[in-house]
Structure formats: structure tokens, C-alpha cells
TrEMBL record:
Highest taxon of source: Bacteria
Gene3D superfamilies per record: Restriction endonuclease-like alpha-beta roll domain
UniProt-listed InterPro entries: Restrct_endonuc-II-like (IPR011335), YaeQ (IPR009822), YaeQ_sf (IPR038590)
PANTHER family cross-referenced by the UniProt entry: SUCROSE PHOSPHORYLASE
SMART domains: YaeQ (SM01322)
Record's protein name: YaeQ family protein
């Protein structure tokens, strides 16, 4: 018997200062795969907010390992954003860059250390075209703190300014840097 995913309802007040985005009522329904950690759910939510644009949608999830975790398509169906979170494979990211020439390919890692490990692995396997992707890592402490919130309905206020993330969830405030890859 297959376990069903758990549905989470995120109500987010999103402000991305550098991109002039102000979404006071962003509602996300996030399906958590039975084998998925809450930390990965939060990483997907943070990636969604970091890269938010109209028509951004969650991908097929862990059941389809070659599919993006998030994607955005234009009105013709062409992929304009392809996003992976967590432990990405450099060759798969390079393939995404190659197969989606009109898309912005991005990866959000769970820590700066994981980002560095990815870059090291990419150099070792000579996946040089990953440099065309936007690579960043969320602060591990911020992600750990947010992943402690595991209720089915979560209210979140999220502000991104420069490369810093400020979050308020259930009356508690957190913040941390967003580290970008230096290629």
C-alpha cells in the first residue's frame, strides 16, 4: 500500500525588495511526499518565494527525479524557470541548462557547505555549464529553525533584501544570509 502525501497550507506575506515584489496574500498548497523531510518542504517553499513569479508551480516531486522541484512556463508552454532544491547532481543540472536554453535554471541548497560540495563535484566531473545556472544556499540555521514548524497550516511573513532572508512564523523571528555561488 502506498502512503499518500500530506498536504500543507502555507499563507505567506512575501516581500522581495530588490525585485519590487509585494505579495501580501500568497497561498501555497504543498504536498509532502511520505519520504520527504520537513526541511526539504521548507527548502521548496523558500525557493518558491526567492524565485517567485506568476505561473510558478511545484514540480512532480520525488517520484520523478529528473523533473524540476519548481518550474514556470509561459503561455505557450515553454519552460522559463527550472528549479531544483537540495542535493542536486551537477550532470543533471548541466543537462537542464542544455535542454532548457530559454529558461533560467536555479538550484537552492540547504547550506553553503552543500553548495561548495556541489561546485567541487561539478569541477571533478567537468560539468562546466552549471556556471550558467543560478546557484545559492540558504543559511542552515534559518532552514533548521523554520523546519521546526510542522503544522498543516502555516502563516509566514518572508522578506528578502539583497542576499538576506527575514522570516516571521507564529510570532517568532528568524533571519539568515542567502549565499550565492562564486564561480
Amino acid at each position: 500500500m502506498t502512503l499518500a502525501p500530506t498536504l500543507y497550507d502555507f499563507q505567506i506575506a512575501l516581500s522581495h525588495v530588490d525585485r519590487a515584489i509585494d505579495q501580501p496574500q500568497l497561498s501555497l498548497k504543498v504536498a509532502r511526499h511520505p519520504s520527504e523531510t520537513m526541511q526539504r518542504v521548507w527548502l521548496r517553499v523558500l525557493a518558491f518565494c526567492w524565485l517567485w513569479e506568476e505561473r510558478m508551480a511545484f514540480g512532480k516531486g520525488l517520484g520523478e527525479p529528473d523533473e524540476p522541484d519548481l518550474e514556470c512556463r509561459d503561455y505557450t508552454g515553454l519552460v522559463t524557470s527550472w528549479v531544483r532544491v537540495g542535493k542536486a547532481d551537477p550532470l543533471k543540472v548541466q543537462r537542464a541548462v542544455d535542454q532548457n536554453p530559454h529558461a533560467k535554471v536555479s538550484v537552492l541548497f540547504e547550506s553553503p557547505q552543500r553548495l561548495e560540495a556541489f561546485l567541487t563535484e561539478a569541477r571533478e566531473v567537468k560539468a562546466l555549464r552549471v556556471a550558467k545556472a543560478e546557484l545559492a544556499a540558504i543559511d542552515a540555521g534559518l532552514l533548521r529553525a523554520l523546519s521546526g514548524f510542522d503544522s498543516r497550516r502555516i502563516k509566514l511573513s518572508l522578506t528578502l533584501v539583497g542576499d538576506h532572508v527575514y522570516a516571521e512564523c507564529e510570532g517568532q523571528s528568524f533571519d539568515g544570509p542567502l549565499t550565492r555561488a562564486a564561480l
